[in-house]
Structure to design on (291 residues):
């Protein structure tokens, strides 16, 4: 019995020795992230905003700068509540904001409807690029306020001159971004679609336009920023309603706290535009930045 057990153990050891070695368990290695990574920057941004407010309060509270030129955050907040309740310059706060939003959104709609097809045509057709490139490149570097007097002379001081001015300011960035989106399309995608039998319309709608869409949306974001700055400056010159008019009216009376309120409203609207464009990008081009 003992000899049988010993021989069994010897056979088991020999079989174990002759068995092929088991592969080691795979070792997972975490890749280093590039850029800011996936971590949120919201806490850092909030902390930065809090530090700026604290510095503002400290400088205003110490009296280094007179309150006439730098009111405290509490004073600005008090004036903001007063403007919210009673309005400013013969109009409510909503009337000022809605007047500015109506102008910028109307001009943005016109610029998008005209600019995207123009940019796509310039990217796809050499005749369109040759004809339209010169006038666009000529007026695009000009500050919009440089030709504001012409708009006033030709179209008057009403809403038409402001909307045309804003449309011109936003038209060029949208056109150039749409053109760039087409020209950065890899030729391999076009050849692959053609080899699969795609028609010209299918090539445009399913390859060219989706590939150019991220650039187009970026151009719209830039155009909104340019248009918003232009709008406020245009309202400073010739207007009776709008956020820019409210700021200019307050500056005439050295109401610095009301000027701060207007600046805060301008910044809030610009931030809202940015958030809306980011949400639109996430819906229309969810693949952006992932390949």
């Amino acid at each position: 019995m003992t000899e049988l057990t010993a021989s069994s153990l010897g056979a088991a050891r020999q079989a174990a020795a002759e068995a092929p070695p088991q592969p080691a368990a795979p070792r997972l290695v975490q890749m280093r992230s590039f850029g800011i990574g996936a971590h949120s920057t919201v806490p850092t941004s909030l902390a930065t905003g809090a530090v700026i407010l604290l510095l503002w309060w400290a400088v205003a509270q110490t009296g280094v700068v007179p309150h006439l030129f730098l009111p405290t955050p509490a004073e600005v907040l008090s004036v903001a509540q007063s403007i919210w309740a009673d309005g400013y310059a013969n109009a409510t706060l909503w009337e000022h904001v809605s007047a500015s939003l109506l102008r910028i959104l109307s001009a943005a709609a016109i610029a998008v409807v005209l600019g995207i097809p123009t940019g796509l045509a310039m990217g796809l057709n050499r005749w369109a690029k040759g004809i339209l490139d010169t006038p666009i490149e000529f007026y695009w570097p000009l500050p919009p306020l440089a030709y504001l007097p012409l708009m006033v002379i030709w179209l008057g001081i009403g809403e038409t001159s402001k909307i045309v001015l804003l449309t011109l300011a936003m038209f060029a960035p949208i056109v150039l971004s749409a053109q760039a989106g087409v020209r950065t399309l890899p030729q391999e995608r076009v050849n692959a679609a053609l080899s699969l039998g795609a028609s010209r319309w299918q090539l445009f709608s399913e390859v060219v336009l989706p590939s150019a869409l991220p650039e187009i949306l970026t151009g719209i974001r830039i155009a909104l920023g340019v248009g918003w700055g232009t709008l406020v400056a245009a309202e400073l010159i010739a207007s009776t309603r709008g956020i820019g008019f409210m700021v200019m009216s307050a500056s005439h009376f050295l109401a610095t706290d009301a000027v701060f309120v207007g600046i805060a409203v301008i910044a809030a609207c610009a931030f809202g535009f940015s958030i809306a464009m980011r949400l639109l990008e996430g819906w229309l081009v969810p693949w952006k930045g992932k390949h």
Q: What stands out?
A: The radius of gyration is 31 Å. DSSP finds eleven helices and no strands in the chain.
